[in-house]
Amino acid sequence: MKTYTVSEVANYFNVAPETVRRWIRKRELQATYNSKKQGNQISESAIGDFIASHPRYNKPVEENLERLASAIKYTRTALEELTRVIHEINSEVETVTKLLKEIEDG
Asked: Which one of 10-14, 56-60, 91-95 scores highest in mean pLDDT?
């Protein structure tokens, strides 16, 4: 099962790392402390349990989905524009190739 650091969880919920540590200290969020170097490790299931008991923190998921949908729309538009430009370039290359052939054939 994948685990996350305090910083990763803080970024996900858009809160300060100290907030995540406070949740852990208050036992609102389950974590495993393996070593000083690794710090607290939070499992996916612990995050799911936390969200289930704290619905207000479900919002970042919705916001992330909205940002993702917006990014997909932007990417699709950019790809369509890139495709159009590539077709224009190919057309110009064909024209130049024909002109060069005519010049060679004299």
From this structure: 91-95
